[in-house]
Structure formats: C-alpha cells, structure tokens
Amino acid sequence: MRAGAAPRWGLLALLPFLVAASDPEGDVRGCTDGPGSGAPDLIEVHGEIVELGTSARWKLVFAEPLVVPDAVGRPFRVDIAIRDPDVPVLSFAYFRNVNRLVRVDATVGHRTEIYLFPERATSEFNPPIIEGTSMTIQVPGRTLSDDEDLTGTSPGLERLRWTVIVRDGRACDFLGEGRPTQRFVTQPSPSPSPEPEPEPGGLSPWWIAAGVVGALLATGGYVVRRR
User: Fold this and answer.
1) What is the predicted pLDDT for the residue at 20?
2) pLDDT value at position 121?
C-alpha cells in the first residue's frame, strides 16, 4: 500500500461522525397546501448521541441568524418529530408516524418541551443554545424512552428515527419529506491521555519527584540532629 493512502483511510473512518442531513435552501412552503413564507429556512441538521449514550443532541443550521424571542407575529416553532419502534405511532396534521416530540418555541423562556404521545406524558428541559444561524438542542435519553435501568439508554437511542419541522404560522420548512427517517450518529469516546514519555537520556518525572522528596527528608533529619 502506498504511504500516501493512510490519510485517505483515516478520513473514511471519521466519515460517519461528520455526516449531516442537508435541506435545500429556500424551500419554505405552506404546512399543508399552498404557498408559505416567513418560517426560518432550515439548511442542515446533525443529530448525535452524546455523554456516553445517555443524551441526544441536534444541531440545526439555518440560512439566516435566528432572532429569539421572535417578536414578529407568532413565535416560530422548531419540532423534532421522533419515531420509537417499540411504541405505537400516530399521524396528525403534518406529522406522520411519530410518537415523541421535542419542541422549542421562540419565546422569551424558549425551554425545551418533550411530549410522549402514547403515554400522554410531558416534561421540560433546558433551553437550546442559539448562536447566530445555529440552534443546539440537547435532552436526556430518559425523557424520550422507558428507562428501566436508570441509564437513559433503554431501549436505546440509536434505534430512534427523527426529522425536523420548522413552523411559523402557516409556513413550514420540512427536513426532507418531514418523515422520521434520520439516524443518530454516535460521538466517539475520548481516548485516554498517554503517560508522558521521558526524553532520551533524561530522567523520568517520577524519579525527579522521588529525588525531591528524598532531599526534603534528608534536610529535615539533619535539622533534627543539630537540635
């Protein structure tokens, strides 16, 4: 194998962690039928499982900077529609085959709301992080599925499928067809920091520390004997 091929293989190995779902720019339309405009224009979403498999995080990128709170008309709304294969699904309005919803309204508080439809359960979590054209939403896994072992990973976040719908009044921007088909990627675990290697011909840091401690003990013993 040629030596120059190694970086290319390294890039391919990282590819699953770099993939994001893209959405065409300028595709805002009516939520049901007819034209629509005014909703933030979604262009990219990256969904990943973080914190050792216990949390789900989405980073949404828009064509223009977000203004929150939204003071024009009704506040725009971001819905992450989720399908858990172990739970019955519902279809209503412009949602198809979903059973969980993560919602953020562009209000003053803009807290993250979680809805579990079959269970008729709701909960709230921290507001998303909004920076210019991006919005990052993160929720614990235990708020999205049954948590039998209190780890937030049951039945497994990797089994969930999701999509994003951005709405402002009657205008919507759907990620793709607006159906929950996107998969999470898993954040790689951090590698442990290697122990410092001694320089060639030099002393190990452990030997240096031991020498310092020995010198201090010897000095203390000398002072005691003089007294």
Assistant:
1) 81
2) 93
